[in-house]
Amino acid sequence: MKTFQHLRGLPWLRVIGFFPLALATVHADDWPQWLGPQRDAVWRETGIIEKFPAEGPRYRWRVPIGGGYAGPAVAKGRVYVTDRQLPQGATNPANPFARGAIPGGERVLCLNEADGKIIWQHQYDCPYTVSYAAGPRTTPAIHDGKVYTLGAEGNLLCLDAEKGTVLWAHDLKVDFNIQTPVWGFAGHPLIDGKKLICLVGGQDSVAVAFDKDTGKELWRALGAKEPGYAPPMIFEFGGKRQLIVWHPEAVSSLDPETGKVYWAYPLTPSVRAGMTIPSPRQSGDLLFLSSFYNGSLMLRVDSEKPTLVWRSKKVSETDTDGLHSVMATPLLEDGHIYSPCSYGQFRCLKMETGERIWETFAPTAGKSTRWGNAFIVKNGARCFLFSETGDLIIAKLTPEQYQEISRTHLLDPTNRDPGRLVVWSHPAFANKSVYARNDREIVCVSLAAAAGR
Q: Any residues with CB less than 8 A from the CB of 414 and at least 6 apart, and which?
């Protein structure tokens, strides 16, 4: 099977993570996993609108669904999304930090991409014990006719993409004798060759690789008191493919084939509240990490070990330096870093030093707000930003300024857990459209240029 290995040095291609080459070329307009075909938050389709029309973009369809933070995935004319179903009379706690046993179930939905009609659904009983109990967290991964989903309570499923039948399953809590993390299982699974790599947890199983066709465990690695929430990523450093696993006690590099640890960089102090959440990001030989309390860490990595370039000096949610991202995946481009910070300050930093160049609240909540967020997806020379207010924004991000080009309200924020209404689900971009969900519906909106709308 061919891979992107031989293409990684080309300036137009930054491969973050790994997916088979056939998936990215034959189905270049799909969004089959977290952050897209190449797991790098880049949308490579052309023929996309430059500005939203005055009357707003065209809604292709909208379909009612249940709650969840999980973003949709799009592959081969179908849309896959997970949600949570509460039984009649059941409600989530008024205090979102409260943990109890809340009855309900999780669903995997398969929709027809053309009209949103439900083709199949798979539902299973799943009482919740997590804080922020809206629903599942992780984006489905689609590959070779199979759908892989990971629920908030650790239900790992492999389903037939056409029919929805379960091919294999694991209950991670039972199989690995672990407890559900405070905010649930949230590390988006990663497909690499014949492996499905997951963030699990436990003293020797923070990262686990399963045979993607049978569910058989292939290897397990790393131990920590808690696994965190950051998705596993594969980057190439020094000519070597390295699986990066970032948990609250260390960032580690593993051999993706065997789970052997290449190196580990201890985090002292450990990341507060276990909040290793944003995806690790690569730029050349640099590896960037950011968290809500502890701030940023920039490492320079060769094939053997990392060295510190810089790190935030302040462990605080309000008195911040550099970048204290909560959940957004930062954009690293042309020597600069762009991302929301702890209270929604959308910042530009110098990559080599962490020095702040500018900040604005425009693309997040419009004002200082705890955990103010916007998701960033690159498309050509501009970005699509999906705000927690439900706005989709076209903007150019440069070291000089944040330049907003156009904005439209895509769907209403419905989640009340942070004390205000938000939508905290990463959209998908495919078929010249955007697919976004809140806790009530999923919508598909055309972003095709005028001639193709």
A: 421, 423, 438, 439, 440
d(CA 373, CA 365): 7
- What letter represents residue 405's amino acid? I
Pick the closest to residue 219 from 249, 194, 240 (CA basis): 194
Q: pTM score > 0.90 for this model?
A: yes
Q: Rounded to 5, what percent of the chain is helix, strand, coil?
A: 5, 40, 55
What sign does the dihedral 101-107-108-111 (CA atoms) show? Answer: negative
DSSP calls for 119-162: EEEEEEE--B-SSSTTS--SPPEEETTEEEEE-TT-EEEEEETT
For tokens 């991670």, the residue is: 172
Do 87 and 124 touch, CB atoms closer than 8 A? no
Q: Is 301 helix (H, G, I), strand (E, B) or coil?
A: strand
Q: What pairs with residue 277 in β-bridges? A: none
Q: Does residue 38 carry a pLDDT above 50? A: yes
The answer as to CATH 2.130.10.10 being correct for domain 5-452 is yes
Peptide bond into 269 cis (omega under 30): yes
Contact call for residues 396 and 405 (beta carbons, < 8 A): yes
**Residue given tokens 């686990």 in the structure block:** 208
Per-residue tokens: 425: 């689900």
Using DSSP, state whether 173 is helix, strand or coil.
helix
Residue from 313, 259, 309 nearest 284 by CA: 309
Across the chain, which distance is largest between two alpha carbons, in Å? 56
Query: Which tokens hold the place of 154?
Result: 């650790």
Reported as a single tens digit per residue, the pLDDT across 166-195 is: 999 999 999 999 999 999 999 999 999 999
